[in-house]
Design brief:
172 residues, single chain, 6 helices, 17% strand, globular
Length: 172
């Protein structure tokens, strides 16, 4: 019901993007709010119904339910036809560039986060979440262009909560 007022606006968009600042890991991993989120998987169906096309999963809550949470979230989003960017199942998937095409234009989407609230990436599975890394971001931009992107959209999740003006790091 919370999406009813915005559904007409989202329906009018060629591409509607959401930041999913929670996991969809299922009840067996426990539903919870702050500080480690896990929401019902039905949220994926609601996002699709509302008109979203792409979901950024690169944010500080991506690892709130560990590797299982990342993988289950990706599975639930995919099951409802939502494209996810920023978290991945493998190194190969992480290296692919997420592209959507609209009106003959190819748009590449890249997503990164400043961190995961102190939850470390599992050793050997650093592919799970794209962190802000200038070198990797530069390589992704090159690969997006080489892959035929007409436009590149970079979704950065960073900053200080409740601070309304940019930090020097954000400006950089």
């Amino acid at each position: 019901p919370c999406f009813v007022p915005v559904k007409p606006l989202l329906a009018a968009a060629d591409i509607a993007v959401a930041n999913l600042e929670t996991t969809l890991a299922g009840p067996e991993l426990g539903y919870s709010g702050y500080p480690r989120f896990n929401s019902p998987a039905e949220l994926a169906a609601a996002l699709k119904w509302a008109g979203f096309h792409l979901v950024s999963t690169a944010n500080n809550h991506a690892l709130d339910r560990g590797e299982k949470g990342v993988l289950r979230t990706l599975d639930h989003l995919a099951a409802h036809g939502l494209t996810a960017v920023g978290t991945y199942r493998s190194w190969e998937e992480r290296q692919s560039i997420t592209m959507l095409e609209r009106e003959g234009q190819r748009l590449a989407f890249l997503a990164y986060t400043y961190g995961t609230n102190g939850i470390p990436l599992p050793e050997g599975k650093e592919y799970l979440v794209k962190l802000i890394d200038w070198e990797e971001m530069a390589q992704d931009l090159i690969r997006a262009r080489e892959g035929g992107a007409d436009w590149i959209v970079v979704l950065l999740h960073f900053g200080n909560e409740y601070q309304r003006s940019p930090t020097p790091e954000q400006e950089e």
